[in-house]
């Protein structure tokens, strides 16, 4: 485990082990008693504000996702694996997102939320600090790109939430979200420009990324407006959807290629790598959709959509790093 002092490694193992035991044991309890009945469990009525009617699915998620991530962090840290820091970040992030989702869905605060929320943030902080201090390009890329995309994503997410709360028309909402999309691209571009091992012109790279992201959001929102019309032919909506999908997958990578071609001999390969990254990561940002509706408090909207955006940003950064290693000189 690169540049990882023994005391910090032991602390990570202790925290992750506590998280693993708690999550796996808690998840098993929820699965065994999906409708409550155990004196240590909350009443099933607590789920009234959620899409779940029993504790079965939450229990499986808690044990397999949160518990599994923590078990992986313990195992890889003990083995001093090069992937230990990544596993620690994932474990801390999974636990933190779980607590945030609980707060957003249940809209109730318990002292254990503070304990496990702090535990998740501690693991996340230890992993990020170790990754940053390692000086490795892959860690620098994942941190800066995840942060840039997450912060940028919150612009259209907040624009969409605010537009809905203000009861703006569909066209007004589309304009607001599209303009915020340019901000998302700018933040993502700056994060990548700071992490790239080649001397790109940072503001040009960020500006091109902003234009690409704006084009994506504009095409998506236009298609949604057209699809919402009662007189819109089905075939036309289908064709427009296919065109928008193509634009959405290649616009950002294509815009960035205009700058990267000055630094990489076959920079065009960056376009399919970014397309792959968005294909895998983008659906994750829509994960909170089934969990919210018009009655959901605005704070819950922000927490849930923010959690989905963070997960999307993390996965996108992981995949684009693999592309950068193969396309950008000096990244490997």
Number of helices: 10
Largest sheet: none
Q: Tell me the total number of β-strands.
A: 0
Helix and strand sequence: HHHHHHHHHH
- The percentage helix is over 70%
Averaging pLDDT over every residue, what do you get? 89
Rg from C-alpha positions? 21 Å
Strand percentage, roughly? under 5%
How many distinct domains? Answer: 2
Q: N-to-C terminal Cα separation, in Å?
A: 18 Å
Describe the global form.
flat
- Which structural class matches the secondary elements? mainly alpha
The low-confidence parts are none
Question: Could you explain how this protein is built, in words?
Answer:
The chain is mainly alpha-helical. The protein folds into 2 domains: 135 residues, no CATH class; 197 residues, no CATH class. Helix content is 74%, strand content 0%. It contains 10 helices and no strands. Helix 1 packs antiparallel against helix 2 and helix 3 runs antiparallel to helix 10. The longest helix has 30 residues. The mean pLDDT is 89.
Question: What is the topology?
Answer:
Blueprint: H1 6-32, H2 56-78, H3 84-106, H4 111-134, H5 137-165, H6 170-195, H7 202-227, H8 234-260, H9 270-281, H10 298-327
Helix pairs in contact: 1-2, 1-4, 2-3, 3-4, 3-10, 5-6, 5-10, 6-7, 7-8, 8-9, 9-10
